[in-house]
Amino acid sequence: MLSFRMELPCLSLLLLSCLQSLSANNDFFTSIGQMTDLLYTEKDLVTSLKDYIKAEENKLERVKQWADKLDSLSAVAIQDPEGFLGHPVNAFKLMKRLNTEWADLESLVLSDTTDGFISNLTIQRQYFPTDEDQTGAAKALLRLQDTYRLDANTISIGDLPGVKHKSLMTVEDCYELGKIAYSDVDYYHTELWMAQALKQLDQGEESPLDRVILLDYLSYSIYQQGDIERALEFTKQLLALDPEHQRANGNLKYFEFQLEKLKKEAADTPPTEKKQKEKREATEKIKKPKKKFLTPQLPERKKYEMLCRGEGIRMTPRRQSRLFCRYYDNKHNPMYVLAPVKQQDEWDRPYIVRFIDIISDKEMERVKQLAKPRLRRATVHDPLTGKLTTAQYRVSKSAWLTGYEDPIIDKINQRIEDLTGLEMDTAEELQVANYGVGGQYEPHFDFGRKDEPDAFKELGTGNRVATWLFYMSDVAAGGATVFPDVGASVGPQKGTAVFWYNLFPSGEGDYSTRHAACPVLVGNKWVSNKWIHERGQEWRRPCSLNETE
Q1: DSSP line for 74-134
Q2: What is the pLDDT of residue 13?
Q3: pTM of the model as a whole
Q4: Who contacts 32 (Cβ-Cβ below 8 Å, separation ≥6)?
Q5: Chain-centre distance for alpha carbon 32
Q6: Per-residue confidence at 195, pLDDT binned at 50, 70, 90?
């Protein structure tokens, strides 16, 4: 008898070595770079699954051949059983079939062809994304929806700017997003995605989900947002499909009671008070023209999201005319006298410059190659403890690279020193970051404020005087670096770097440098940054007696 045991594909063994580096700290959704490994894992599992299907088909083909042969034999034998068995060979073969061959067939049918596939799946499952990853990716979609003002249908049909591989969401996908929002007590997004799932179901999409469960979530989420009348309408639709639905019947009575109560209160309100209330509501509903520039009164979150959408950039034509591009050699630095670099002004206050073609493709690939196995969930400085910790407002993975481990890193550090004129011996190591699904870093300061006296005490190198930021990939949509307080936006451009001072020469912090990394809407964002500290800059950037100079 043939053995149907499948061997573990060689590819899976190669993948294990890649995935083992991720097992200690998955958080796959926080890094697109590491998520690419999951595609190869899934491809290997599909190959293993196809091998299993082929083995099952071979087994079924043998069983079918056996059944066809016995069917023909039985058809002849039962026409004249005694005459058929009167032939001694037929009698012998009957005994043999029932005693031996049917037992062999039983073994064939019971043979387990799943061994190879199951063992492969079991081994690789330990490196699979977790519930936290799925929830994190779902919340990222909701974050992108809010930041870039996308409606549910736009996301569902995959109609996003700059996409190469359009992907459609199913009814179940929309339902899952709505459920995650519901479990997070986010009834606004629950309504949006349950309504989208219902819309796709009404358009004829096949799904194991029915309208009843969607209407149940939809009516309750609308009620929680205070719209009892609409909640009642959807509850009635639900009961038309399932009159015995216990919760819906209870909600129906409750919603009707609440509406009646509101109508009664409205009827009991004195006419004068009622008119004043209507007048106030009408005034509030008058929509003022939307301004395309930021005002100081806007909350920071609104400013941040507007800048991410390309709105509210506060650069006037007059200020724009004072920004220039140039060939730069940093006061005749010997490295750049004959081959100055291209530099352009990005902003005037704070002064932000961009260096163009400042890092080669070869260098960027080497930096990514060194960083990828070490990528871990990015941390932020906790002002209360003075230590680094993970945070929901920073969705990325990062790694630190030292100059002595690879000549390219040392070369990059020297380049930053030559172009800024600042000491690198006291700077932090090169940090490499890769952003995940909807990857972002909400508004923050790079320097330690006065209420954080121990911010960088452990380093013993003083405050962060300046920031150098390399962009190591182009981003199809989103991913800009924005400065909400001043209305500045700097787009990611592969091979370039931006530089700004966090501190005035006096040592005081420049609060206008508060900045953020916008969520990545489409694409894969890689950056690396160098935080340069005060110590060692005494003669390179002398202190000023004026607090803001």
Answers
A1: HHHHTTSHHHHHTSHHHHHHHHHIIIIIHHHHHHHHH--TTHHHHHHHHHHHTTS--HHHH
A2: 39
A3: 0.80
A4: 434, 435, 436, 437, 439, 520, 524, 525
A5: 7
A6: very high
